[in-house]
Amino acid sequence: MNVDETDRYPYLGVEIDWIRSALDADLPILGICLGSQLLAKTLGARVTAGETKEIGFYDLKLTADAGNDPLLAGLPPTVRSFQWHGDTFELPKGAVRLASSEAFANQAFRFGRYAYGLQFHWEVTAEMIRAWLDVPGNQQEIAALPEIDPAAIRSAIAAELPAIHLSGNTVFERFADLCAD
Fold first, then answer.
1. Which of 81, 106, 164, 174 is most buried per CB count within 10 Å?
2. pTM, full prediction
3. What domains can you pick out in the chain, each with its CATH number?
4. What is the torsion angle, in degrees rounded to the nearest 10, for the CA atoms of residue 172, residue 169, residue 62 and residue 149?
């Protein structure tokens, strides 16, 4: 789904309203994948189909601004991520770009003090990835992308997840601390 499919998924409009309310109240927000796109849209940025899709394990390049960010400071300049998206977003006006990938300039951003959008999945588990790969609609999506090998994704899970969880756990714990403040 994408953020503009409100006729098909009416709750997306409700989500955008909720995000606007949270922004207005200066509450912490952490949007992951579609959530980052919804946050970007709420902030007035365009969300569009990308030129390619990222499905699998990819490097993220952290920006110089990430080095001073409350959530990302201290992470290595290149970190691993799990991705499953084809849409992308413009960087919202006033937002700080925190990460990019080879194919997508906007992978992570911060708006204000507490609103974060992460295009990628640091929350994934092996079970989640396997389940996503087994969804018939996802299998059809991958079948149309000869550069994506689901068997290679499955075989890389055990080797890839420790680094992803190390970065993710650091960031999620820091976000929880922001919420507690």
1. 81
2. 0.95
3. 11-180 (3.40.50.880)
4. -110
